[in-house]
């Protein structure tokens, strides 16, 4: 029944939360010992993760279509924990140490992006919930990376558009119901999402010249904007065909 999570799924979700939260605490503690980061990194990481878990639990209760939370979703949850650690870096001063920490954590999160899908296919545990959970973590990761690129002065405030596009698209669907129609699976969409994430990651590398970083980030934002525009035009075309039919 929608809105009710079975005991086995609740137990596996709790185990995954404890494992991811524990991993986050250990990593945050290790990074907090680096020069310029400090103990606030641990507090902000865990607080951010705790806030992110609330909508996750609601999503599980409404959408989980499997008897257990599953290993693949557990990997996605670990990516959410790493994203929380990245979010905590927004509260530390700009420094090479902070930039390298961001690059390291973001690289791990991006590498794990391919692991959860492969694990789901290997275990034959692919589900609508898993796909939605993965997509939401991807969107949040891009938003956090965009905010970090701005915070670390690697790009202007315009870079936030990369992270806001997904949420602007959802908001627009509240006004225009035709935008709520399901989109077909798209290799282009997934590829550009990855390219955008990598562009944001690369632009924050301390070895990348400051003059070049905005161009790298801007290329990713341009591609992502074009992708969302293509999806919007496709949905509009489908809407017009239904009206004309």
Index terms:
single chain, 245 residues, mainly alpha, Four Helix Bundle (Hemerythrin (Met), subunit A), 8 helices
Describe the structure.
It is a single chain. With 245 residues, the chain is mostly helical. It has one domain (7-244): Four Helix Bundle (Hemerythrin (Met), subunit A) (Up-down Bundle), CATH 1.20.120. It is 75% helix and 0% strand. The protein has helices at 7-32, 40-63, 71-88, 96-122, 128-151, 160-175, 187-203, 213-244. Helix 4 (96-122) packs antiparallel against helix 7 (187-203) and helix 7 (187-203) packs antiparallel against helix 8. The model has no long low-confidence stretch (mean pLDDT 88).
Short characterization:
The protein is an all-alpha fold.
The assigned CATH architecture is Up-down Bundle
CATH class: Mainly Alpha
Rg, Å, rounded: 19 Å
Largest sheet: none
Number of domains: 1
What is the CATH third-level topology name?
Answer: Four Helix Bundle (Hemerythrin (Met), subunit A)
Average residue pLDDT = 88
**Quick one: overall form?**
globular
What are the segments in which pLDDT stays under 50 over at least 5 consecutive residues?
A: none
| Sequence of secondary-structure elements | HHHHHHHH
Q: How much strand content do the residues show?
A: under 5%
Class by SSE composition = mainly alpha
Number of helices: 8
Number of strands: 0
Q: State the helical fraction.
A: over 70%
SSE layout and pairings?
Layout: H1 7-32, H2 40-63, H3 71-88, H4 96-122, H5 128-151, H6 160-175, H7 187-203, H8 213-244
Helix pairs in contact: 1-2, 1-3, 2-3, 3-4, 3-5, 4-5, 4-7, 5-6, 5-7, 6-8, 7-8
